[in-house]
């Protein structure tokens, strides 16, 4: 069953109410919230209509902040808890403490710089990251109440940001990989993610030749399954396969619901992944 389940808008009349996908299987963990936003609702104008959550895509700043505030409100979280990074398609992991709480909510300048994974063991921090085709990775360690959220495009996948996040959680909180739950969110699917052999060879360094991970398409081209590759990297790093959830949504196939960088040729907005735990 699709783990990212749609939370409908409060009412038909609230057409701007944010359309959010809740990571349903984790609602069994008390105080935990995890999910992914869609493009539905919100006040951004085309081509970033409507619920764009990112400030770096040329959208009206006021509209983006209003969209973010609406999402926080829909989740029942104070906007002051919203904490995010300037993502750079790398693999640097930053630990978020009470000192970093709220960074990046209102501006790019105030965001945690140069990071593609955020981890924390402090409650009441809402980790946020932004996506349009790249793969959102979620980690939860119930033993230490610790969270991790990562951004894995093909570069982040090649840099194994999943492994780096797991390693950072182990170093910071004593997280055992076998205690972790993980989830892989909506992202571009193997149906749509065609690359050349240069990209394929960079991504598949530590990944076996297997039809699960890539399939040949046209001459010299391949279609990569970034979600399956990240699942493989998570398992390799010690997470139990039975504890990994994976979304079936392809962002590029469903531009009615999602922004897609590839399908919309770069002229689009960003969804957000969120992960937080209340005290
Ligand atoms: Zn697709």
From TrEMBL:
Q: Which reaction does it catalyse?
A: S-methyl-5'-thioadenosine + phosphate = 5-(methylsulfanyl)-alpha-D-ribose 1-phosphate + adenine; adenosine + phosphate = alpha-D-ribose 1-phosphate + adenine; inosine + phosphate = alpha-D-ribose 1-phosphate + hypoxanthine; adenosine + H2O + H(+) = inosine + NH4(+)
InterPro entries from the xrefs?
Answer: Cu_polyphenol_OxRdtase, Cu_polyphenol_OxRdtase_sf, Cytotoxic_necrot_fac-like_cat
A molecular function (GO) held by this record is: S-methyl-5-thioadenosine phosphorylase activity
Family matches, as Gene3D superfamilies: CNF1/YfiH-like putative cysteine hydrolases (3.60.140.10)
Q: Which domain of life is it from?
A: Bacteria
Q: Which keywords does this chain's UniProt record carry?
A: Hydrolase, Metal-binding, Transferase, Zinc
Instruction: Give yes or no: UniProt keyword Transferase.
Output: yes
Please indicate if the UniProt record lists Transferase as a keyword. Answer: yes
Names of the cofactor(s): Zn(2+)
Q: Name one Pfam family in it.
A: Cu-oxidase_4
Provide the family line.
Belongs to the purine nucleoside phosphorylase YfiH/LACC1 family.
Q: What NCBIfam families does UniProt report for this protein, alphabetically?
A: peptidoglycan editing factor PgeF
What the entry lists under PANTHER family is as follows: PURINE NUCLEOSIDE PHOSPHORYLASE LACC1, UNCHARACTERIZED PROTEIN YFIH
Q: What does this protein do?
A: Purine nucleoside enzyme that catalyzes the phosphorolysis of adenosine and inosine nucleosides, yielding D-ribose 1-phosphate and the respective free bases, adenine and hypoxanthine. Also catalyzes the phosphorolysis of S-methyl-5'-thioadenosine into adenine and S-methyl-5-thio-alpha-D-ribose 1-phosphate. Also has adenosine deaminase activity.
Protein known as = Purine nucleoside phosphorylase
Give the species this sequence originates from. Answer: Cohnella rhizosphaerae
């Amino acid at each position: 069953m699709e783990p990212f389940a749609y939370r409908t808008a409060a009412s038909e009349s609230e057409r701007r109410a944010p359309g959010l996908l809740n990571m349903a299987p984790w609602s069994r963990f008390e105080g935990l919230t995890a999910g992914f936003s869609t493009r539905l609702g919100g006040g951004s104008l085309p081509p970033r209509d409507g619920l764009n959550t990112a400030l770096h895509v040329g959208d009206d700043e006021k509209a983006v902040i209003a969209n973010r505030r609406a999402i926080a409100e829909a989740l029942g979280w104070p906007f002051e808890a919203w904490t995010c990074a300037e993502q750079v398609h790398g693999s640097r992991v930053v630990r978020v403490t009470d000192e970093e709480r709220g960074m990046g909510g209102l501006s790019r300048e105030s965001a945690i710089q140069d990071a593609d994974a955020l981890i924390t063991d402090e409650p009441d921090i809402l980790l946020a990251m932004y996506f349009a085709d790249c793969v959102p990775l979620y980690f939860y360690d119930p033993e230490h109440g610790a969270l991790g959220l990562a951004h894995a495009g093909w570069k982040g996948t090649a840099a194994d940001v999943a492994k780096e996040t797991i390693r950072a959680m182990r170093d910071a909180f004593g997280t055992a990989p076998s205690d972790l739950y993980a989830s892989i969110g909506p992202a571009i699917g193997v149906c749509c993610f065609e690359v050349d052999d240069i990209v394929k060879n960079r991504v598949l360094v530590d990944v076996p030749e297997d039809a699960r991970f890539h399939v040949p398409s046209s001459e010299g081209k391949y279609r990569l399954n970034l979600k399956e590759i990240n699942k493989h990297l998570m398992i390799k790093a010690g997470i139990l396969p039975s504890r990994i959830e994976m979304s079936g949504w392809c962002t590029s196939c469903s531009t009615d619901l999602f922004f897609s960088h590839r399908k919309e040729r770069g002229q689009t907005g960003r969804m957000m992944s969120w992960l937080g735990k209340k005290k």
